[in-house]
Amino acid sequence: DSGVTQTPKHLITATGQRVTLRCSPRSGDLSVYWYQQSLDQGLQFLIQYYNGEERAKGNILERFSAQQFPDLHSELNLSSLELGDSALYFCASSVFPGTLTGSTEAFFGQGTRLTVV
Amino acid sequence: GNSVTQMEGPVTLSEEAFLTINCTYTATGYPSLFWYVQYPGEGLQLLLKATKADDKGSNKGFEATYRKETTSFHLEKGSVQVSDSAVYFCALLNDYKLSFGAGTTVTVRA
Predict the structure, then answer these.
(1) Has residue B96 got a pLDDT over 80?
(2) Which of A17, A57, A87 is nearest to B97 (CA)?
(3) Of A60, A62, A63, which is closest to residue A49 (Cα–Cα)?
(4) The pLDDT of residue A99
(5) In contact, B75 and B91? CB cutoff 8 Å
(6) Which of B5, B6, B93 is the best mutation test for A, with the most CBs of A within 10 A?
(7) Distance CA B49, CA B36 (A)
(8) Does the distance separating the beta carbons of A2 and B97 come in below 8 Å?
(9) pLDDT digit string, tens, across residues A61-100
(10) What average pLDDT does the segment B17-28 reach?
């Protein structure tokens, strides 16, 4: 058990809908990363937050948004869903943001499997 | 920007065979390097890491050495087991971003 909790584990929804994925980081971790894993594109970095602030942005679509709350949990919002958004969405957390001075590993949750039908 | 290129799979081996998965990277500054493993139906788990040049990470019989001169971090294991069947990801942490390679699927047959 990595200590990172993601809910729900599975989600099936229709095209055009909006969903929210939730992530609770390990106790004490201030940094949260979101990734999308699909069969054809591998593991894609979406976005990173550190202590409530956005720190890095990857290949995140405009239809997607995220935030990190004062209690450090994070939510990833996916809207106007398309069939191609079906994927496994992972959250990871680490103590530091990933600067030159604090390069610690990230711990991953079990993921949320999103199926858009 | 940062990028990681790793050997494409799938790789199929017999038990006790030698495993090498190549990984090279592009980054500015001094990234940290990682190997993660993903077993079927699970999330990613850290396998080993190296934070500076010439560091060797090791765990569960796997090893990788951070080679700055060749910008590489190849994963090796001398004698694989069936339980090593998984997807292996090389990763780079730099400038707040944790970037992954495409992953290499390894299947070990008894």
Answers:
(1) no
(2) A57
(3) A60
(4) 52
(5) no
(6) B93
(7) 9
(8) no
(9) 999 999 999 999 999 999 999 999 999 999 999 887 655 4
(10) 95
Q: What is the pLDDT of residue B30?
A: 82
B39 vs A: CB within 8 A: no
Q: Provide CB contacts within 8 A for A37, sequence distance 6+.
A: A43, A44, A87, A88, A89, A90, A111
User: B90, B98 in Cβ contact below 8 A?
Assistant: no
Q: How far off is chain B from A15, nearest CA to CA, in Å?
A: 25
How far is the CA of A75 from the CAs of A83, A90, A112, B51, B105, in angstroms? 21, 11, 12, 30, 30
Phi first, then psi, for residue A84 (nearest 5°) are -70, -5
DSSP B68: T
Give the model's pLDDT for residue B28.
84
| Residue with tokens 């809908």, as numbered in its chain | A17
